[in-house]
Amino acid sequence: MERIALRGILQIFLVTPVMFFAMSGLAGCERLPPASNAQKDTPAIALGRELFFDQSLSADGTVSCANCHVASKSFTDGLSVSIGVNERPGTRNAPDLSDATVYSTLFWDGRESELNVVALQAFTNPREMGLTDVDALLKQVNAQPRYARFARSNPLDQSDIAEGLTQYLRSLPRQPTRYDRSVEKPSLLTADERAGLALFTGKAACAECHVLAGNPAALTDQKFHYAGVGFEQIAGDVTVLLGRLEHATRTGQPLGELVLSEREIAELGRFSVTRRPPDLGAFRTPSLRNVARTAPYMHDGSVATLDKAVEREIYYRSLGRGRAVNLTVTEQRQLTAFLLALSTEN
Ligand code: HEC
Ligand code: HEC
Questions:
Q1: SS3 call for 343
Q2: How far is the CA of 316 from the centre of ligand 1 (A)?
């Protein structure tokens, strides 16, 4: 608990993040993106795509996976925290699903690790699609003639649905970014972007966590780190929250339902999974791939712009290391310029 007190003191110096509950601009009914690899689609991928865009598979008939994972926003939704059925907000910022195959654990707190398990959870989470149970999902799917053509077995079962969505997520394109291509051909980066890369791997030490290894670069170390984002909201109540977690475990409430409906529990981060004090308020290092398209930022979407996110990271990460990193305004601009080269061009 000493650590918590210390954090409390640290928080005095930390800026209180502003929550941007952008209640408007919900993606609504995005149209299916052109099926560019339609020829290569297996029946499972085609089924997954159909399910991904189907709003009828939600309690109020208005929410599909694609509401919160919008293709043109690199499979995020542009909101600070996602909004599910009956306009009810969750607690977390929607992650880019084209990275889902890169992570060794899933969700901001890494509470799951298998895509085919995660693929089904949104259907029954009250803050997402809100169906009562998997049976309700199967009933709704099998009542629709358009799914009949996918039936290996008849009717479609839970594993067909999980497999279809998993295959669809795996099929999302992961083209190399301009940075990835510049590894072979450095002239693809401008002078400012190259200076930003040198800072990213050097003085600013961003690559310690947003690692550049791999091609395409993973930009995550797959680990969990504390940065004070949102944590000051709960610093006093950890014991009470631990009790709530234990109660949920005893009563069989899925962790994902608790996390997305209770903001204070959500701020515990990795701790809610491991119950280890060093994991309090720690979150998975997000890949920075396509970061230009995934605003707002951080697990709670509390940082509105990329400039602000970079500014925050420079400050807090050096605080975490106990050694201040001072970047000039120009260097900070170069660092951001480099992050913008981490996007695919389509
Ligand atoms: C109401 C908005 C919403 C809907 C609907 C939704 N998601 Fe998500 N999704 C999220 C949020 C928010 C998270 C992050 C939750 C967390 O970290 O606790 C997430 C996380 C995920 C992840 C983990 C990604 C990662 O990087 O760890 C996968 C996979 C996923 N969703 C797939 C789906 C699928 C498939 C559907 C439809 C069946 C779906 N989602 C429906 C908002 C939504
Ligand atoms: C100690 C590991 C670590 C270091 C070093 C680090 N980051 Fe991060 N970064 C994280 C984690 C963890 C998050 C998510 C924090 C959260 O949401 O609470 C994050 C979030 C971000 C985000 C928001 C991404 C999104 O999708 O929401 C950006 C942008 C970012 N970091 C840039 C940087 C830059 C630039 C540097 C170097 C100055 C840096 N980071 C250094 C671990 C790190």
A1: coil
A2: 27
